[in-house]
Amino acid sequence: MDTVRLGIVGLGNMGKAHLANIRAGKVPGLAVTSLCESHGTIPPLQEGEEGFTDVNAMIKSGRIDAILICTPHFSHTTIGIAALEAGLHVLVEKPISVHKADCERLIAAHKDKSKIFAAMFNMRTNATFKKVKDLIDSGELGAIRRVHWEVTNWFRTNYYYATGGWRGTWKGEGGGVLMNQCPHNLDLFQWMFGMPQRVRGFCQFGRFHQVEVEDDVTAVLMYDSGTTATFVTSTGEAPGKNCLEICGEQGRLTVTDGTKIHFQRNRTQMSKFCMEAEAAFAMPESWHMEIPVEPTGGQHVEILQNFTNAILKGEKLLSPAEEGIKSVELANAILLSTWQDKTIEFPMSSADYERILIEKGEKSTFQKTKVAPKASSDDFAKSFR
Questions:
Q1: Could you give the number of structural domains in the chain?
Q2: Closest Cα to residue 71, out of 49, 88, 51, 94?
Q3: CA distance 305 to 318
Q4: Per-residue pLDDT tens for 144-160?
Q5: Residue 108 CB burial class (10 angstroms; 0-12, 13-18, ≥19)
Q6: What is the pLDDT of residues 37-71, one digit of tens each?
Q7: Which of 75, 173, 194, 343 would staple 71 via disulfide (CB 3.0–4.6 Å)?
Q8: Domain encompassing residue 142
């Protein structure tokens, strides 16, 4: 095989964006042969493409080798399982599922390891975060003492939530800022720092919008090593910011807007200086430096190319879908901690979370005013997450 025949299911903003990139020839070795949309309009088909309204019919058609799942969150599990059981290669948009139990079901369906199973965590291609991970893994920062990530530049208006009946609801979206806007941030967090052992979440629900899900979050994450971290996010704070601070033995690293890295580097590791200095108010000598970073990276196209190359050439995956359970578990645990008003240990109980989430969806009496969208398609593309 020299070309992977791809079927895309879900032709919303992200599905259309992926389709445009592939049709433009930006992903050598990958060709769209099938499109599936059950609730909207399929874009005009090009030569060699076939349209479907039933995803199971597309999966069984024999026209595709792989599927790209761009549907609403809850259906990632059922479609992914059906595709894996049919022997297809699978690439699923973030998050891979809404809750940990569904992640476990989806991952368990990946029995044939010759089939590639990947997730669209395109931020792993961002050169800034690749550099930060390299600085951590190489020991340049020394042992990590503390992490603080404030990512509040996800501001959304109430109109944003009102334009979609599924938005901002437990039954439709399965969560708020943690599940819709922050999967990439949570994936990067565990990718760089590893999973914590405990978390205490403080979520506020519908604080800034007419929604029933979380739109303001503060979480404290704890590691057995003594390292602590805070994660703060919101869709109701303007102006927001995106600032990651990492305090290590060798100094403090600050990442601003995902593009700039500043390192205030200690000449002597802080713990060594603390124990050896013979002065009460002395501080280690430190140097300020800007860490050079290459252009941003290939983002969605790079993940698509990596997925294709993994199928055709055996290339190592940048974002294996099995790793997608970690960001989902972080989000679930922060919410579960809030609901149960206690610290949650990892691994968390997937059954407890699933039970509460289902109950919230079934018992919800939440109603919101629906409005017709007035924004341009470009505006909606920008605000899809």
A1: 2
A2: 94
A3: 10
A4: 999 999 999 999 999 99
A5: exposed
A6: 998 789 999 999 999 999 999 999 999 999 999 99
A7: 75
A8: 126-293+327-363
